């Protein structure tokens, strides 16, 4: 067991900002699976997800000084980095070209692999209790958060998928975030 095992988040953040290798190893060991789950939901293959997760941890290491505890928890900040990095990767020209040139059998196999990975990662991501917090949201709010942050949909895509106006998606998403923020404060 790591000597950092029961370290308060504030102390962990201070160590990370001092570029402490042991603190970063602890962070990776305890959060990589949950972040990998977020990335897998957005990126089509586990091979690509592994590349993205490396980029995510490099960004966390390089930019930990930008983390502001007043704006939220460390885990929430890391999820945001993981999600944005995965979305950037998925939208990159190389990935789009690769997807266009894939045989149909690869697409089907990739989708099956992604579905299995999502099931496995969803179970693993709950170790931090976020699933319990998310389950406290209204169902119409929870689906928006899941589609945006776990599946990588844009607000426009969510509006099209759910057949609701874009303004409604934006309003509900804002309300969901406000309630999530309150629930996370209570969780602390």
From TrEMBL:
Gene3D superfamilies: 1.10.1740.10, Winged helix-like DNA-binding domain superfamily/Winged helix DNA-binding domain (1.10.10.10). GO terms for molecular function: DNA binding; sigma factor activity. Residues 27-93, 134-181 form the RNA polymerase sigma-70 region domain. The keyword Magnesium does not apply. GO terms for biological process: DNA-templated transcription initiation. Keywords: DNA-binding, Sigma factor, Transcription, Transcription regulation. Pfam families: Sigma70_r2, Sigma70_r4. SUPFAM superfamilies: Sigma2 domain of RNA polymerase sigma factors, Sigma3 and sigma4 domains of RNA polymerase sigma factors. InterPro entries: RNA_pol_sigma-70-like, RNA_pol_sigma-70_dom, RNA_pol_sigma70_r2, RNA_pol_sigma70_r4, RNA_pol_sigma_r2, RNA_pol_sigma_r3/r4-like, WH-like_DNA-bd_sf. Belongs to the sigma-70 factor family. ECF subfamily. NCBIfam families: sigma70-ECF. This is RNA polymerase sigma-70 factor (ECF subfamily). It comes from Sphingobacterium detergens.
């Amino acid at each position: 067991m790591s000597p950092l095992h029961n370290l308060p988040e504030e102390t962990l953040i201070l160590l990370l900002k001092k570029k402490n290798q042991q603190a970063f190893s602890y962070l990776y060991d305890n959060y990589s699976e949950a972040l990998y789950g977020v990335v897998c939901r957005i990126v089509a293959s586990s091979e690509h997800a592994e590349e993205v997760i490396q980029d995510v941890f490099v960004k966390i290491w390089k930019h930990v000084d930008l983390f502001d505890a007043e704006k939220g928890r460390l885990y929430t900040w890391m999820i945001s980095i993981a999600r944005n990095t995965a979305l950037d990767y998925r939208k990159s020209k190389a990935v789009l070209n690769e997807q266009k040139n894939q045989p149909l059998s690869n697409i089907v196999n990739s989708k099956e692999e992604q579905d299995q990975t999502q099931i496995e990662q969803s179970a693993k991501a709950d170790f931090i209790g976020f699933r319990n917090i998310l389950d406290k949201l209204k169902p119409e709010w929870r689906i928006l958060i899941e589609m945006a942050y776990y599946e990588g949909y844009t607000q426009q895509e969510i509006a099209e998928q759910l057949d609701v106006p874009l303004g409604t998606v934006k309003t509900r998403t804002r309300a969901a975030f406000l309630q999530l923020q309150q629930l996370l404060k209570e969780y602390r």
